[in-house]
Design a protein that fits this description.
This protein has helices at about 20-30, 35-45, 45-60, 80-105. It is mostly helical. It has two domains: about 15-65; about 75-109. The chain is elongated.
Length: about 110
């Protein structure tokens, strides 16, 4: 019995970057198509992603830019957030140096 894997029509697991224009066109096509699942397979995206884009467009308006949520750019981060991260890093360095100092004190002959 020969078992061969058929080519998958599912989108790949790797994250894709789609242009804003592509996303808006996909949402526009969603409104006129009969099957969102078929459209998702045709475009090579997950069906739930189409719904997420549609929801985002409804909330923010048709001319808005569809971009993924993520870590804000360095220019957008507040001074307080930056200082908190720096403080945490320095506290960790200080703890490491204290442990190293205690180790070398005990090691003296």
């Amino acid at each position: 019995m020969n078992k061969t894997k058929l080519p998958s029509t599912e989108p790949s697991g790797a994250p894709q970057n789609y242009s804003n224009e592509f996303k808006q066109d996909a949402v526009a096509r969603m409104k006129t198509c009969d099957s969102v699942t078929a459209l998702a397979l045709e475009l090579g995206v997950r069906r739930n992603q189409l719904y997420k884009w549609q929801k985002h467009l409804e909330l923010s308006g048709p001319g808005s830019i569809l971009k993924s949520p993520g870590r804000p750019s360095l220019g957008d981060q507040s001074e307080v957030e930056r200082l908190r991260r720096e403080n945490a890093r320095l506290e960790m360095e200080n703890a490491i140096l204290k442990k190293a100092g205690a180790y070398f004190v005990r090691r003296k002959p």
